[in-house]
Amino acid sequence: MSDNTFERSDALSLARELGERCREHGISVTTAESCTGGGVASAITAIAGSSSYFETGYVTYSNAAKARLLGVPQPLLEQMGAVSGEVVEAMVAGACIDSGADLGVAVSGVAGPDGGSDEKPVGTVWLAWGDARCQQAQCFHFSGDRASVREQSVRMALAGLLERIEDMQVKRRGKQE
User: Fold this and answer.
1) How many domains does the chain have?
2) Membrane spanning segments where (predicted)?
3) For a 10 Å CB count at each end of the chain, is N or C smaller?
């Protein structure tokens, strides 16, 4: 993800901008969250009128919930672990399929203070954005305590949704020309 003004904004400002863009372009969104525990959905629904574009939010903290609610294959969870690009891509695809949303975000990470490993230390967070057909995952390494890692994850999730909406509009304009 590029370094832009979205990433430096607070979550409510990002959520407000997301709402404006979703309403302007008729886009619906969904969330699939693990380490943020519904923080992304909370930021989105803090904005009045969000029911016009926010379909649903899934908080799938356990692997069993990821499999049951989002259709993440159990072998994928066992092989890659919940904190992986492959799993967050499957999460966002499942959320979009189940909810019918145009665009979604998924987040899974190690917020701390425990649970980290040499391979996936505390602050490792995978995010994926996309829809039922196409997803893109990215790994981030956030610093700070648990609350800080979660807040940075929420902001990045929202910033990524805004970037994807911009990309969608650029592609639509390109097809019209």
Assistant:
1) 1
2) none
3) C
The answer to the question of residue 19 being in a domain is yes
- How do beta strands 103-109 and 29-33 pair? parallel
**Angle, helices 63-70/85-99, rounded to nearest 10 degrees:** 40
Cβ burial of 75 (10 Å; 0-12, 13-18, 19+) is exposed
Q: Taken in order 83, 86, 90, 96, is the CA torsion positive or negative?
A: positive
- pTM for the model: 0.93
CATH code assigned at 26: 3.90.950.20
Distance CA(13)–CA(136), nearest Å, equals 24
Residue 134 exposed, middle or buried by CB count within 10 Å (0-12, 13-18, 19+): exposed
